[in-house]
Amino acid sequence: MFKISFDFALTSYCQSRCRTCPRTNNATGEPEDWLTIRHVPFAKFKKNTLGFNREIEYIKFCGQTGDPMMHPDITKFIDHAFTMTNNVSVNTNGALRSSNWYTKIGNKYGKDLRIVFGIDGIDHDTNWKYREGVNFDKAWENMVAYCNSLGYVQWDFLIFEWNYHQIPLVAQLAKQINVDEVDYKINTEEHGLLDANKLPMVKEMICQANTI
To answer: Domain containing 61 — which CATH number?
Structure first.
């Protein structure tokens, strides 16, 4: 039996105004007019996924128009996902829910639950340049709490013209707080686009960071 995987978009709610996100109007920072703001009902999700008869490699809660942690029933979605697979991941900007929630869910599922924190700076001002609307201190507190639990922590660091110099510090901090994995991604959109002449240097910085 072959393995399949799923990426479910649970909500179109998000407190962030990331300028290159599909949900955000680049000029105003507000949600696009075509976007309907709503949550997927948990009962509907559960009904539509009951009786899956194929082996599922992993289930991911990410989507393109919202942050899964905005969903009031995210815990139920995670719990139900684990009835179908032993590998679940959730992508978030990190500043939603409480540190206590992250500690509890991490200790419940351990390394089987990967939470991917999209934090693009090591301070509020840098992170806000893309993650506008995100409380950096809260996001950092939540990531540290999850690092101190039994869960698997992935830090996604999106590289812009304004933050590439922080790559070495990201690597050092990640090691200090016991992040399991750091994924450095170079932004390819016009907003914050890295100077092309710096690409070789930045790629070398990433290589060095991955050895720390």
So the answer is: 3.20.20.70
